[in-house]
Design brief:
It is a single chain. By secondary structure, the chain is of the alpha/beta class. The chain has two domains: 2-94 and 286-312, Rossmann fold, CATH 3.40.50; 96-278, Rossmann fold. It has helices at residues 11-20, 31-38, 54-58, 78-84, 96-111, 114-122, 148-159, 173-181, 189-195, 215-219, 238-247, 287-305, 309-312, and strands spanning 2-5, 22-25, 43-46, 65-68, 87-90, 140-144, 163-167, 184-186, 198-201, 225-229, 251-256, 276-278. Strand 6, helix 7 (148-159) and strand 7 form a beta-alpha-beta unit. The radius of gyration is 21 Å and the shape is globular. Bound molecules: nicotinamide-adenine-dinucleotide. Nicotinamide-adenine-dinucleotide (NAD) is lined by residues 70-72, 92, 95-96, 99, 144-150, 167-170, 189, 202-205, 208-209, 230-232, 257-258, 281, 283-284.
């Protein structure tokens, strides 16, 4: 098949794709470059950070399959793919463990001032008395979006001695029971927001979650609480968060792995604040996970070419 890989992918997977297909690699193209490089392709593999919209798909008359090397689908126009009869599959689930572990990296970095401490020490300061912070044990963790990643974060927090509250879009008894066995109590968004000492976001970005965390929600957070966004940039109104973090009446610190505007040269509106930790969308960047994701991308493209995609796909992988 004629394959375009339009995002950074594991080198082993690129070798395999190159040995079996006509491979073109153009990592993170802008729209014009994307349109030019996809024009004669039958398959495209993308991660987050590139936008596969109607214009880009229109530039590729032979396009038959889109493979999302990860779980979020907010950068793909699914409606247009459906209309065009282009299949869309994703590699979901693999990133749950790395993203959940990274959530704890950010929770601890925030709670214990790890980044500020590092900065101060490098400038010759020893501000030990100023760097006290809360323990996690005994505190309440709120999980907004207790799905694959959020459920795992909840389970890990429970093992750390935290009380865990979560909410989902469609709270059914089955999910409630399954989460309860992992130490997560399912409740509503308002309760999660009001009671969480640490509030973690793990929802997909869609119309119902865009700016879910706005000025109003921030005002309802518990005084002294901390926010971690591992979901998508558009879930948080960053300007409203910047104001709330300056006022410090409710949320007093935030860590964000995902941002409304991402990429080289982009400066977050939160970058000037001390009580903020920022990382460049590295939640899933555990090396083992990247290898597994890469090899799954190869399997899915091979299966599509061999006309056995339906047999190959696992739970939640087939989108369109
Ligand atoms: P999932 O579908 O298993 O879980 C999402 C959960 O969010 C579901 O339980 C759903 O019911 C819930 N939800 C949806 N809308 C909601 C709302 N309005 N209020 C409350 N809950 C709501 O997905 P997942 O695999 O856990 O991934 C979640 C998201 O994490 C992805 O869509 C992606 O945006 C993000 N992600 C980030 C990284 C990263 O590197 N930071 C990596 C992978 C995924």
């Amino acid at each position: 098949m004629r394959v375009l890989v339009a995002s950074p992918l594991d080198p082993g997977a690129l070798d395999l794709l190159g040995s079996r297909h006509d491979l073109r690699v153009v990592p993170s193209p802008g729209e014009a470059e994307f349109c030019a490089s996809i024009a004669d392709r039958q398959a495209v593999a993308v991660r987050s950070g590139v936008v596969l919209n109607e214009q880009v798909m229109a530039a590729a008359p032979d396009l038959r399959i889109i493979v999302r090397a990860g779980s979020g689908l907010d950068n793909i126009d699914l409606g247009h793919a459906r209309q065009r009869g282009v299949r869309v599959v994703r590699v979901n689930g693999v990133s749950s463990v790395p993203v959940a572990e990274m959530t704890f990296a950010l929770l601890l970095a925030l709670a214990r001032n790890v980044v500020v401490a590092d900065r101060e020490l490098r400038s010759g300061h020893w501000p030990k008395p100023l760097l006290g912070g809360p323990m996690l044990r005994g505190k309440t963790l709120g999980v907004v979006g207790a799905g694959r990643i959020g459920g795992l974060v909840g389970e890990m927090a429970h093992a750390w001695g935290m009380r865990v509250l979560g909410c989902v879009a469609d709270p059914r008894d089955e999910a409630r029971r399954a989460l309860a066995t992992r130490g997560v109590t399912l409740t509503d968004l308002d309760t999660v927001v009001a009671e969480a000492d640490f509030l973690c976001l793990h929802v997909p970005l869609c119309s119902s979650t865009r700016y879910l965390v706005d000025a109003d929600l921030l005002a309802r957070m518990k005084p002294g609480s901390l926010l971690v966004n591992m979901a998508r940039g558009g879930v948080v109104d960053e300007q409203a968060l910047a104001r709330a973090l300056q006022e410090r009446t409710t949320v007093v610190g935030a860590a964000l792995d995902v941002h409304e505007n991402e990429g080289e040269g982009v400066l977050s509106p939160l970058a000037g604040l001390d009580n903020v930790v920022l990382t460049p969308h590295i939640g899933a960047m555990a090396l083992e996970a990247q290898q597994i994701i890469g090899s799954r991308v190869v399997d899915l493209i091979d299966a599509f070419e061999a006309e056995r995609l339906e047999q190959e796909v696992q739970d939640g992988e087939l989108v369109v």
